[in-house]
Amino acid sequence: MKLDTRAMRHLTAEDWKVLAAVEQGSKNHELVPVPIIERFSRLKGGSSLVSKCISTLAKTSLIAKMKEAKYDGYRLTYGGLDYLALHTHSQKKHIYSVGTRVGVGKESDIMLVADHTGAQQILKIHRLGRISFRTVKTNRDYLKKNASGSWMYLSTLAARKEYAFLSALHSAGIPVPTPIAHSRHTIVMSLVDAPPLRQISSVPDPAALYASLIELYLRLAKHGLIHGDYNEFNILIREDVSTNPETGTEEITLVPVVIDFPQMISMEHVNAEMYFDRDINCVKIFFERRFHFKPTTPGPFYKDVKKTVGRDGFERLDATLEASGITKKMAKDLEAAIRQHEEEKLQNPEAFEPSDDEEDDDDEDEDEEDKEGEEANTAEKEKEGQPSIVIGFQSPSES
Ligand code: ADP
Ligand code: MG
Looking at the predicted complex, does its ipTM rise above 0.85? Predict the structure, then answer.
């Protein structure tokens, strides 16, 4: 799914109203009947104006018909939901322009955007529930039967959860991007000027960096949280430069910034220990492979860390979800979708392999669910690549 904003400025105020009407109707209809679109759009021009707008929106693939539909109706496409979210961000002056794509995963697109002052920010578009082409049969059954499996619901939920945690962690002083705005399946956050750990080929002091990653992880745990995907892609390494007051030399500290929270769980979760161990192991394996560093002491262990939850004045943040209006049922649906996605990835890794096929998958008059999700995971592509950035070393002139 490619975000193509070219048609945006050609849409009239009426087109936007009709698009919003299709979104509103989608809450109760898989395919929104035309009379309902007319009613929700409240246009003075009547049905001929609505059908003109429908035709524009369908041509730009923001709404689509379905094959074998029993009545005349439309559904919102990924592109349609993207446009509505961007429209909201733009009206609230959080986004003025959309730049290049920083990353594309199976579950998200990461875009560089700018606000009206020219400040660069990150737009994360969640794409959870997009169906993998090769697993389409099992998925299709699941989705058809289960409204809580729909991509729009799941992606919106993922964004809401991520925004809620981003805000809570940011307020608690954890190094995360600054949350800026949230609309539908998207969030806007500050751009962290730091590469992911994955891209770093060497560091002067692996032991110190390892210690800071574990320390950050244990801070999350004290807040009652398990990241659940604490790996080299989701930890960005920022270089903080300061001057040593005694020697006058510049010193560089490597500061980990953590991102990507839709799978975050509570330390009280039934499988907490398993996810805790998996996260810690992930860091250990990476440090051994990349930096040939092995910690001398075992652990940290879940059972010890569990005792620290809420201690030392750490506010518990694992109730953040409920506080943000995400019900237990919603949290469960989201978790099920994320787990299903993880399993699919394990069982069918080639479905997540990069491909060059970047065709837009929202063609009109087509039930194109078969195609959705077929595209490349360039984050995976990156996994194959060599690390390219060396950071954290002082240049000879500085030392
Ligand atoms: P996904 O859920 O698809 O893994 P992430 O939130 O982990 O999405 O983002 C994917 C990649 O995009 C990250 O590995 C990182 O390189 C980049 N990225 C995401 N958010 C930011 C940010 N706020 N600042 C800089 N880079 C970011
Ligand atoms: Mg990630």
Answer: yes
